[in-house]
Amino acid sequence: MQSILNSMRTLALRQSTGDAIRRLHLSAVNEAARKGTREKARKKKVKVEVKKVGFIPHNQRNKKINVKRADKHVDDSWKQVPKDDCYVGRYYRWPVYSVAEAIQCHRETHHPSMYNVPTAPLNVDIELNMQGEKATRFVDNFQRMAMIPHKFEHGEERKIIVFTKGNNEIVEAREAGASLVGGVELIKDITSGELLLSDYQYIIAHPNILPELVALRGLMKRKFPNPKSETLGANLAEMIVKFSNGISYSAAKDEYQQNFGLITASVGTLDMDEQKLEENIKFLLQDVNSMRPKREGRFITRVLLKSPPSSEQLKIDPFVYVPEMWEKSSAKVKKEEAKKQEEPTEAKEAVAAAN
Predict the structure, then answer these.
(1) pTM, whole model, 2 decimals?
(2) Helices (H), the chain
(3) Which part of the chain is CATH 3.30.190.20?
(4) Which segments show compositional bias classed as Basic and acidic residues (predicted)?
């Protein structure tokens, strides 16, 4: 104890004389807490408040439910062909009818002795493979108007307004059956609010009035005439006939299966001539086939003929009217053949140069 007091005195004396001395530390330097440890400890002490939530219906929950859904593309090619008229349908292939046979079957079910609806509509269900050119791409939903050779009562209100300049074009549009035809004065009436575009289902225009029609782009929005939707063109009579008598249809992808699309459209009534109904189906299928992507494989996978109120659906062969597989254009085929012919000559030249 005495030695400790002596050492402390010597330290005090040195400090008074001006000598540099070290301070005495009673705790180790390395024991200091690392960065963030105190904050972590504080967070652990904080109590987590659990919010009580009432009952939530299963269809309003955010949980992703993996449900195995059946493939909507029906492929019964592996099934056997029925040998007689009495068989269990799910174990055999669907019978394929001609259009005339399918129409006759529907007429029999709609006979006065059965459903008694001889003027029932004939509907077509067209199933599509919406797979695009790439594996991760799909064909966008589309809505079109197919021109048909034989008109029928479709039961829709179709008012057509036509914008054009020139007396000849105005007379042509009126004779074709347009609801309203006009030029610059008609545009002024719409901008002033005297005429409503919402009263008309279809808007058609001639290219000669396009600069003045730009003023109505904000009001028309998607209905603004353009060549892609075939609402802008010089042949007004053909366009008016198409939109007044044609078949309006839309293709929509399935919500859960993006590569499956369905089109439901009416092609006529059962009291029409069989040949006229077949021609309407042919023109509809050709219009749908014009939207097919540039890839191998089928675009139209299956076509069914229906006629309400009957639940009967009869399968027909669509490839009688449209090609089954995608066909490359003749120009592309020639280019590919030319490339194949050039490849051996280039290889020969390379070998000759090496020797």
Answers:
(1) 0.72
(2) 2-17, 37-45, 99-109, 167-176, 184-192, 210-213, 217-220, 236-245, 274-289, 330-354
(3) 109-148+250-354
(4) 332-349
Per the DSSP assignment, residues forming a β-bridge with 97 are 316
Contact 315, 137 (CB under 8 A): no
CA pair distance 287, 230, nearest whole angstrom: 13
The closest of 125, 155, 120 to 309, measured between CA atoms, is 120
Task: Label residue 216 exposed, middle or buried (CB < 10 Å: 0-12, 13-18, 19+).
Answer: buried
Dig out the tokens for 156 from the structure. 């829709």
Q: How far apart are CA 296 and CA 325, in angstroms?
A: 6
In tens, the pLDDT along 120-138 reads: 999 999 999 999 998 889 9
- Return phi, psi of residue 324, to 5°: -70, -45
Q: What is the pLDDT of residues 57-99, one digit of tens each?
A: 777 766 555 567 889 999 898 999 988 889 898 899 999 999 9
Q: Which long-range contacts (CB under 8 A, 24 or more apart) does 322-325 make?
A: 322/285, 322/286, 322/288, 322/289, 323/289, 324/298, 325/296, 325/297, 325/298
CATH number of 160-243: 3.40.50.790
What is d(CA 154, CA 6) in angstroms, rounded to the nearest whole number? 119
Query: 268 by DSSP, 3-state: which?
Result: strand
Q: Which CATH class is domain 109-148+250-354?
A: alpha beta
Q: Which residue has the tokens 């020139």?
A: 166
d(CA 23, CA 84): 111
